[in-house]
Amino acid sequence: MSMLTPPGMGGKYRIKGDTYPRMRRPRRRGRLVLALVGAIVALGLIGWGTIQLIDVFGGGGKAKAAAHQKDCPSPGASGAPQALPKPAQITVNVYNATPRAGLAKTVADELKKRGFAIGKVGNAPEAYDKKVPGNGILLGAPAAAGGPFSVLGAQLKGATPKTDTRNTPDIDLILGTTFADLNTPKDADTALAALAKPAPAPSGKC
By CB distance 3.0 to 4.6 Å, which of 73, 76, 111, 156 could disulfide with 201? Predict the structure, then answer.
């Protein structure tokens, strides 16, 4: 036994002078765990990529695109033009709720020149006399709340539409305390043209 050999050790641990005992290092389990996790992640990414390719080449992408186009109308799409009645089809009763004498007749004559049919002309009923703020009120049956109100309203900026229980097609124009004059024929025609245009579809992102 060599003097370099510790007591009690022999055999393969015997130190002979020209060789040394080889001690195996403990395995590092941490590296094995990390390698295993990395392999699982890589397999998952490969599987996900394969599914995406199958979806695209199998027509799934086309289906999603079609659904997107169905939900989002194209920017060029537009609704149907709004059908507006002609002024001659609208009978207007003109009432003056202001202290200015003769105002109802003046406005009625101008509306007649613009093609409207004129009904009653005079002072406003007691319920409205001197009690109408703003430029005026458009008063008529619920059926007049669409086209007739829009056509007459284009002649008078800021008029407030209201409905009552009448069943006749005529409309009351009650002139309010701040009324100065009707819109110019040019401005009225521009407003009517804008109302008659098709409404563009929303162009925002979906």
Answer: 73
